[in-house]
Amino acid sequence: MSAPQVNAPLLIQPLEPRAQLSAALVSTPTPIGLDHITASLSVPRFSPAAATVGSKVIFAGGAAADTPSNAADIYDSSTGQWSASILAQAIFPATAVAVDSAALFTDGDLVEIYNPKTAHWTTSHLSKVHGNLAAATIGDLAFFASVDVVDIYDASTNHWSTAPLSQTRDTAKAIAAGNKIFIAGGQHLGQISDAVDIYDATTHQWSTAELSEPRSHLAAVAVGGKVNFAGGSTRKGIFISDSTRVDIYDTTTARWSTARLTSPRRNIAAVAVGTKAIFAGGSSSDAVDIYDSVTNRWSTARLSSARKGLAAAVVGNKAIFAAGLTLNASNGGNTADVYNASTNRWSQIRFNNPRNLVAVATAGNQAIFAGGAGIEGEQTSNVDIYTDTARSASLSGSIAGGSHAAYVTITNTGDAALAAPYVLTVYASTGVVADSNAVVLGQVHLPHALGKGESIRIKVDFNRPPTTPPGSYNLLAVAVTSNHRGAVFASKLHAFKAL
After folding, report:
1. Which pLDDT belongs to residue 201?
2. What is the pTM of this model?
3. Burial class of residue 270 (count of CB atoms within 10 Å of its CB; 0-12, 13-18, 19+)
């Protein structure tokens, strides 16, 4: 078996080529809290589209009193200031994406393009008029897919091109992961699709794959090099029902696997936080399924109330789930559910007012929830802004070693020092997960804090030489733990399979 390697941009200096080990080390910060403030959009409306480019978050279009809106509100997260502008025409329903240098908003025909450097808007059109778009971006390329075509905008050249979809469909789900764009599932004229169209940004080539079950209205999220397509609607005979299926594509191996949610549902809120993918609510459910991309294991939780149409965002090590519709079609209450990835705990925080059809975006350490429809269906201008106030260490690094010792390099890329004392532990395993199969090879206690931007290189002598050749390890892992003011800072047990 070859030595473990990691698909990460790390430079490894082998000490013994036969026994080289490599791994990435990423820590999880300790939380302090979330600050909450409120603001207002210039025009009350529901279902605006949201996109972030640089420090600016743009909420554009939507509907006010069942009339499409041409309003655009721009929040600058670096200054906390709001400004307003008017679109060339009203956009509803609205789809938005952001590339490196522009934000794009479309109703399936007209495309309005915002340049954050000039604060100017320009317009264009998709090649065909169509709705229920699937949209995603990679670099300066924006993809809009529906029916039989993918419209591709290159912001670096201001040029549009098209590509055919392998199957005619809408209500597909698009997501970027690694150097690829995935367009999965969908439906057309009552026929639900299992097609996956895959664009490789390196080769500029398209390929196809198939979901294990045809589905539309599915959720998609990428974490730890794995793309998860979860839930959705599928057809069983003459009936359409919700699905529990999860298709998982591993970008490092180009292989597919499957899993199942604990309950069937569609229109799930899905986000990635830390090493975990969170699938919350959907189909008026309170179920939460949590996938850990490191251990390849699943766990469950419950929302504070069952609902669908959740708005979800991630700031720091926290995932926030707010708004939505409950079982009796009322709005989701004035609380939001928060999952803390570092403590694996849930809590609730105040949400400005019960509402549905809310737009959400993030910028830096802020999550912004804007607009929506209230309990009586009235449009609202309410905006909730949550700021992650946690200042924390964040570690990256590498490990290389041989049969009796390893050298570990760690760099603090966070905005706070890693408090002393802290402990660095090297694990190895011949199993397939880093749990009971993992053994401690060596450990070093470090008495000095690791400041912001500082790096250290540490030799870790193995207290118990491996009983198998290092090249036979299936997994290698590093953990860093520190105790500061009674709160434990701990990296996850990061482990990587041999290629």
Report:
1. 92
2. 0.75
3. buried
